[in-house]
Amino acid sequence: MEDQRFLESEWDYCLVLDACRYDVFADVYDEYLDGTLEKRRSVGSSTPEWAYRTFTDDHDIAYFSGNPFINDLGIPLNELKWGASCDYEWTASEHISDIHDVWKTDWDDDLGTVPPEGIADAFHRNQDAVERADRTVLHYMQPHAPYLSRGKGQKLKQIQKGIREQGEAEENGGSEDDGGLLSSLSDSVRPKIESRLDDSEFAQKAGLWLELDPKDLVKDGTRVTALSMYEENLRIALESVSELVDELDGDVVVTADHGEAFGEEGVWEHHIETYIPALMEVPWLEVE
């Protein structure tokens, strides 16, 4: 298996599916797209790590970002109060020439994410930017949770809100309270919850449970339930991607920033610098 070689490869348009693991993609992609599929090794197990290790120079790219970690706010990853949890002194706007914050402009509050059509709409609205840039990246949030059929995204909503408010606070020269999922708990209850939310399988599952239906968890268990919803999210994204691909004039690649874990080696979801196959093996589809 070769490395992803994201920027070294030849393409005019690269469509990034966030948290898309190779095996699930390989099972379903040919129902939506034609092309040559390879398994490649990502440079990171989470979006902040992938971005930090991929975009190291100055890149003439029109980047349509559904992911709040790749933004035009000018805030380094290690200063983001929400979700990055890394020491990377990397700022997207210092390396990518033209970032479109689709996570702000086309966010769906009911879904708690940017739906696939939001990326397509932003792309259509900004054709002048596409024509100016050397290459174009469209970074979809799916198959990453929240799961669209539920329409109750919570975890990503907290990240989006926190980063947006931090950017506004930076512009205004003020500061914002971190807030978040624990902020509404009483001082007596919060320590008990935090004591369980350490770097453990329980803590990782707790984040995933926010996005799943309790009835399904009881009936089928976490892995079966999550994988089913994950595949459905991927199919929704691929349907939208297939429609957009028909419009694109040039070489098109579909890939991912990292994968997603469903209990492999005790890991759930995706975490920074966690180098297991479920997170590091990603699709590389050169579309016909």
From TrEMBL:
Residue span of region Disordered: 150-186
Acidic residues compositional bias, start-end: 168-179
Lineage: Archaea, Methanobacteriati, Methanobacteriota, Stenosarchaea group, Halobacteria
Protein name per its UniProtKB record: Sulfatase N-terminal domain-containing protein
Record-linked SUPFAM superfamilies: Alkaline phosphatase-like
Annotated InterPro entries: Alkaline_phosphatase_core_sf
Species per Swiss-Prot/TrEMBL record: Halorubrum tropicale
Gene3D superfamilies linked to this entry: Alkaline Phosphatase, subunit A
